[in-house]
Amino acid sequence: MDPRIALAGFIVGTITGISGIGGSSLLAPVLILLLSVKPTMAVGTDLMYSVPTKILAAFVHARQQTVDRRLTTALALGGIPGALAGLGVFALLRAHVATALLQQIVRHAIGAAILCACVAMVAMYVLRARIATRRAVSVRGARSRTVAIGFVVGGLVAVTSIGSGSVTLPLLLLALPAVAVRRLIGSEIAFAAIVVPVAALGHTSFGDVDWRITGSLLAGSLPGVYLGSRLCMKIDERPLRAVIMVILAYAAYRLL
C-alpha cells in the first residue's frame, strides 16, 4: 500500500462523505495533477476503485426503497450501449493515435468533463430548490429522454470516468422535474452500479488499471467516506461545496 495514495483516497472519501460531490470528479485530477498518473491509467483506476463503492451505495438505496426500477432500467438501456460505444472510441484511439497524443486527448477530455460536472452540479442545487415541493409522478412518459441520458452518461463515464453521479442527477432533474429527488438520487446510484463496472471491465482489458493504486485508494477512502458521512450531520457542508467547486474549476483549467 502506498501511504500517499491512501491519504489521497482518505481526503477524497472524507470530502465526498461530507459534501456529496462525486468522488471521480475529485479523484481524477488528484491522480493526474498531484500523483503524476497517466490520464488513461487514471481513468481505468478511478473506474475500478469506484465499483465497490457504487455497488454498496446502490444496495443501501435499494434497502431504503429509493430506487425506481423503471427509471434505472431506462437509464441502463441507454447507459450500457453508451459505455460500450465509449470503450469502442477509446479502443480506436489506442489503435490509431500515438501514445503521447492519446494521453493528451484523454487529459483534455477529463478537464472538459469536470467543467461540465461543475456546471451541472450548480444547476442541480438550483433545480433542487425549485422542485423540492413537487409531487412525484410516473416516469413512463419520459422513457426516451431517460434512455438518451443514460447513453450520454455511459459514453462520458467510459472515456473519462466522470459523470455517473455529477452529470446524471442534474440531467434527470431537468428531464423529470416532477419525480421526487430522493428517487432520482437512488436511481442514478443504482444506474452507476451497473454502468461503472461495464466501463471498468473494458479498461481492465486495455491494461489501464493499476491494482496497487486501486487498493491503496480503497484503503484510505472507505474510512474517509465513513468519517465524512458522520461529520456531515454535524457541520454545514455548503461552504465546503463552494470551495470544492472552485478547486474543481481550477483543476479543469489545468487539465484543458
List keywords for this structure.
256 residues; mainly alpha; globular
Question: Could you explain the architecture of this structure?
Answer:
There is one protein chain. This protein has 256 residues and is an all-alpha fold. It has one domain (3-255). The chain has ten helices and no strands. The longest helix has 33 residues, at 99-131. It starts with a helix and ends with a helix.
Q: Whole-number average pLDDT?
A: 83
Please write the string of helix (H) and strand (E) elements: HHHHHHHHHH
Shape: globular
Main sheet characteristics: none
Q: Strand content of the residues, in percent?
A: under 5%
H/I helix tally: 10
Number of strands: 0
Alpha carbon gap, first and last residue: 31 Å
Q: Which residues sit in consecutive blocks of at least 5 with pLDDT less than 50?
A: 135-139
Class from helix and strand fractions: mainly alpha
Please write out the topology.
Layout: H1 3-19, H2 23-34, H3 39-63, H4 69-96, H5 99-131, H6 143-160, H7 168-175, H8 181-206, H9 211-231, H10 238-255
